[in-house]
Design brief:
With about 100 residues, the chain is of the alpha+beta class. It has a single domain, classed as Endonuclease I-creI (Roll). The chain has three helices and four strands.
Amino acid sequence: VECDATVRARVELVKGRKLDRPIIEVDDTVQVLGFGGTVELATEDAARGAVEWFVGRTGMDRREAYMLLSIVGELRIGTSPRPVMAARLIIPRPVIDAAAGG
């Protein structure tokens, strides 16, 4: 669904922190974006990016993070015009906090 809207967004620059993809942090979730020439490639990119981000944030083993995110992560397809498709893997913040020991 497309519509006109007036939106207020806040963007934070964290100096000294390099990101290889957009990451959206809201109150109850973290959303890791992925891109590719097909929906399949975009979803794979989002999943890989989410695992890398989760491992970096929590210190969890990569294999365990992959298994956990395959259960609790919510994958959504974006509506990008071709040739680039977008997807995002949404991680509930309570899962992140629990895995990080918080």
